[in-house]
TrEMBL record:
Keywords: DNA-binding, Transcription, Transcription regulation
Family membership noted in the UniProt record: Belongs to the LysR transcriptional regulatory family.
Lineage: Bacteria, Pseudomonadati, Pseudomonadota, Gammaproteobacteria, Vibrionales
Chain ranges passing through the membrane: none
Recorded superkingdom: Bacteria
Domain HTH lysR-type: start-end pairs: 1-60
Organism: Photobacterium atrarenae
Keyword check for Transcription regulation: yes
Residues in coiled coil: none
Protein name: LysR substrate-binding domain-containing protein
Amino acid sequence: MRYSLKQLAVFDEVARTRSVSKAAENLAITQSAASMALSQLERLLGRPLFERQGKQMTMTYWGAWLRPRAKQLLFDAQQIELGFYDQHLVSGEINVAASQTVAEHLLPELISIIDKDFPELRIQLMVSNAQKVINRVRNFECDLGIIEGRCDDSRLVQEVWCHDHLVIIAAPHHPYAKMETVSLAQLEQAKWVLREQGAGTRKSFESALHGVIDDLDVWREYEHISVLRSLVKNGPYLSCLPYLDVVQHIERGELAALKVPELNMQRTLSFIWRADSIENPLRDCIRREAVRMMKDRKMEM
């Protein structure tokens, strides 16, 4: 074997940061040492791994091919080292990206379970909308993503975790809140405030509307769910949000859930990861404990 783990570590960090200087800083080595390790690796493999564009480094085809294989080797090396220090097999750090609803309502309980049963497993959490989660996983920024709705990227594996549903909400003083059911025509006449394009909630809502409502009067789009809730509470708007994000406000009488029999608002919450990644016990542990958590919830109901 002509290449070293140090060279692979430099390559992986340059691929992540797109910068030799940043990679050197993160690995606590000099920039010249990082440049030398990367040059040696490229010379040994006989292929350019990056295209230099000013100070930015962009992976070539060969770099993209090497990245998941290098990450697996580095992960295995870490597991060997931890094993010899008598640590648990499930130990180390994993980067997880999740959408807002999952991060706020499901992950705190899951992380608490993992902290209790697998104290050496550290979860670094990033919260984004569904499209940004997909991008993070695809670009190797995260080992595991949790999204709402579908992922059509063939480079990623999607595995359903559980189901939830969306609800259309209005203020209690809104005229529609007093109706037993609301028609599709009435929805078209309303003023809407919705999640931004790329959000899983927005994609699921638009999918439910496809073929039944041609156009909505969308006044505002916001990333933060709390902003949308407040706008609906204090204004003449409708919105569509996950049930988990509004159930407490509905129970307190601050919001009203509208019944629209023609719309199917069910959707899935899913795990995603790169299809070319190799077995990862940390990722498998999170998925396994997440499924077990939802089964325990159903048994308690």
